[in-house]
């Protein structure tokens, strides 16, 4: 578990520091970038939020609050609190046109900054858990790497960066965005800001 958790944080850090991000959309307080590498498409969504970074961190690291602002989360149940910093959740997503609803078993690893310049980190990846085998009513999907990095801007504001690496399993949710309309990501980002503030 320690190595899983370490690789979860490391994968997000690696994704965040990759070069070659292309900016696709700029709004007042939201910027969206994409990064393509082989069959994997990554998104980065940067949000300017008027709350202290530690507040954003505590709200974003509890995934049971995620349904309040992310309509892709229909239910989210805590399966196992491995430690204070590692939790395993079962998440279901609403069905899309012609698709069964999806479900995910995810490990969420949270870290406070070790040094002042470092961000707060909430990393997410799929894991397999005995007793949570795929159910016929859902299409079990996988998250390779996703999560948040939260950088303090001032004592009362921060920059929240959300990253996700997208495989074909998550594609139906983002298909609309790939045709040039980043509407779904954009709407979710605005809901996230509203929820945090």
TrEMBL record:
Domain of life from the UniProt record: Eukaryota
Boundaries of every START domain copy: 16-166
A Pfam short name: START
Record-linked SMART domains: START
UniProt feature coiled coil, ranges: none
Gene that produces this protein: Acot12_1
GO molecular function: lipid binding
Organism of provenance: Malurus elegans
InterPro entries from the UniProt entry: START-like_dom_sf (IPR023393), START_lipid-bd_dom (IPR002913), START_lipid_transfer (IPR051213)
Name by which UniProt lists this protein: ACO12 thioesterase
Any one cellular-component term (Gene Ontology): cytoplasm
């Amino acid at each position: 578990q320690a190595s899983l958790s370490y690789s979860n944080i490391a994968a997000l850090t690696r994704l965040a520091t990759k070069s070659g991000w292309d900016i696709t959309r700029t709004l007042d307080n939201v910027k969206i970038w994409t990064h393509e590498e082989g069959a994997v498409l990554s998104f980065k969504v940067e949000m300017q939020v008027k709350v202290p970074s530690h507040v954003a961190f505590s709200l974003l690291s509890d995934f049971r609050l995620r349904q309040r602002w992310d309509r892709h989360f229909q239910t989210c149940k805590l399966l196992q609190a491995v430690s204070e910093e590692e939790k395993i959740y079962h998440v279901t997503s609403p069905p899309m046109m012609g698709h069964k609803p999806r479900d995910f078993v995810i490990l969420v690893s949270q870290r406070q900054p070790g040094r002042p310049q470092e961000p707060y980190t909430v990393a997410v990846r799929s894991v397999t858990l005995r007793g949570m085998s795929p159910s016929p009513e859902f299409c079990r999907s996988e998250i390779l790497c996703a999560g948040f990095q939260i950088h303090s801007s001032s004592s009362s504001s921060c920059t929240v960066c959300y990253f996700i690496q997208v495989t074909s399993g998550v594609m139906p949710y983002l298909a609309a965005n790939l045709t040039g309309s980043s509407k779904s990501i954009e709407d979710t980002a605005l809901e996230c800001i509203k929820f945090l503030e």
